[in-house]
Amino acid sequence: MRIALFDSGIGGLTVLSHARRVLPSEEFLFLADRDHVPYGTKTEEEVRGYVRDAVTFLIEEQGADAVLIACNTATSVAAEEMRNIYDVPIIGMEPAVKKALAQDAERRVLVAATPITVRGEKLRRLIEEYDTNHLIDLVALPRLVQFAEREEFVSPRVEEYLWNALAPFDLIRYSSIVLGCTHFNYFKDTLRRILPKTMHFVDGNEGSIEELARRAGVHTVPAGVAKAPCRFFASGRPITGTEAIARLERSIERAARMEEIV
Ligand code: DGL
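# D-glutamic acid complex -> structure
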C-alpha cells in the first residue's frame, strides 16, 4: 500500500519516523509544503488552498492509497473537505486532549498548538466534549515552527521564547503538555529542561498511525530496526540535491531522537 504523509514542513517527519518503523512493509510518500510553511499564522482560506493542492498531488499524481495529514493546523481547517472530495482514507491529526485527560483527570493540561489550531472550531468542540472538569489551557507557539524550519532547535533564543510564552502558567499544577503541532516535537529536549519533572509530553503521533493502519486495512508491528521505504517531496517537487537531502536526514535523525524523550 502506498501511504502519503503531508505537513507544511518538517514537523510531519516526527510522525513519519514512527510510521515507517511500525509499518515496515508499506511504501511511503512524504510531502513538506516548503513553499508555504508556516501554515499556522496564515488565513484559514489560504491554508485550505494549500491542503487541497497537496492532497490532490499525492492522490492524483502520486497514486497514494491513503493520506495522513501529519499537521494539526491543516487538519483543523481542511481534513473534512478533503474527505468529501476523495474516497481514499484521509486521516487527520488533532491535539491529543482526550489522551492527556485520560492519563490524569485532576491536574491541569496545557495544549500547545499554532494560532489557527488554538482559535479553531475543531479544537473548541474537542475540548467541549472531553474537558468536563475545565482543566485545559491553551497556548499558541508559532515561533517554534519558524525555529524548526531553520533548524534552530536548541539555542538561547528558543529557550527565552519558551520561558516567556510559558511564564503565565503555574506549571507545577499541570500533569502534561499536549504537543498539538507536529513541529513542536523537535523541542522536547529544550522543553524537558524548562518544564517541571511532574509534567509529561502527550502527542497524537502513535494514535494517528494506529488510526491510519485501521482505516487503510494494514497491520502495525512493534517498532524495530526495519524501516519502510519513502520518497520525499517539497511542494510537489521531488527532493533532490546533496544539501536538501542532508537537511532531511538531519531532521529525520533528530525526530527519532526526540521520540525517546517522555
Ligand atoms: N506542523 C503543523 C501542525 O501540526 C503546522 C505548523 C505550521 O505550518 O504552522 O500544526
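# post-check
The mean pLDDT is 97.
The domain at 2-93+205-259 is CATH 3.40.50.1860 (Rossmann fold).
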